[in-house]
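Subgroup meeting minutes
Present: P.N., E.W., G.H.
Scribe: E.W.

1. P.N. recapped why we're keeping a running log of single-chain structure predictions: easier to compare across weeks, and new members can see raw inputs and outputs side by side.
2. G.H. added today's entry (92 aa).
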Amino acid sequence: GLVKAYGDSAKEVLAVAKSKPIVKTVPFSFSTGYDFYENAKKICLRYGCDDIREDFQTDIKISGFVPEEKFEEFASEILNSSNGKVVCSVLE
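Output recorded in log:
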């Protein structure tokens, strides 16, 4: 009886559990002025960045994780959209 109860509970959990594919990511960071902040956030969302952290000081430091295969394109869009003012780098 106990095995069946545990089995039924496990089936119910798996039925409602959300899953997402495992994607290799790289940590990134860049600093930007407040004038580019909203655009930077939109770019991060468009590229599927995850675990985004923001530190608001004189400038805003944004860090997080971006899918590895998208990093070069992501960094290029950040640079181009900011007219060459914001450089995104990979954290070690």
